[in-house]
């Protein structure tokens, strides 16, 4: 029972983070899908990665982001193509490169089915 509550809180908190930091309404988001854990090499801190779809256009998201509750936690929001994301990956911190690798595996897995 407690494990399911902890798990549910993790998934609920991911949605809250997106709502607070991006400004997208919760009802525009899909349920999060856990895609894996990556960790930093230096301090071995783990980071959990989730995938969420949003049914809003990028222009709408940019507008919502400008007035999001916690938009101060980041400097800018980017909408990029997969090829641009591939090029940006080399500049990401290690755990984020791991998250990108998990995302690529998820995308490949869904295209294979």
Question: What would the keywords be for this entry?
Answer:
113 residues, mainly alpha, globular
Describe this structure in words.
The chain is mostly helical and about 110 residues long. It has one domain (about 1-110). Helix content is about 50%, strand content about 10%. It is built from four helices and two strands. The protein has a two-stranded antiparallel ribbon with strand order 1-2. Strand 1 and strand 2 form a beta hairpin. Keywords: Hydrolase, Magnesium, Metal-binding. Its cofactor is Mg(2+). One of its GO terms (molecular function) is GDP-mannose hydrolase activity.
Task: Please summarize what this structure is.
The chain has 113 residues and is mainly alpha-helical. 50% of the residues lie in helices and 12% in strands. A two-stranded antiparallel sheet has the order 1-2.
């Amino acid at each position: 029972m407690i494990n399911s509550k902890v798990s549910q809180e993790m998934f609920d908190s991911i949605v809250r983070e997106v709502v607070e930091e991006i400004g997208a309404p919760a009802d525009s988001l899909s349920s999060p899908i856990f895609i894996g854990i990556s960790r930093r090499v230096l301090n071995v801190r783990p980071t959990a990665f989730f995938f969420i779809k949003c049914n809003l256009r990028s222009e709408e998201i940019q507008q919502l982001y400008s007035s999001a509750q916690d938009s101060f936690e980041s400097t800018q929001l980017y909408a990029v193509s997969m090829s641009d994301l591939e090029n940006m990956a080399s500049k990401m911190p290690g755990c984020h490169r791991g998250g990108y690798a998990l995302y690529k595996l998820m995308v490949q897995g869904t295209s294979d089915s």
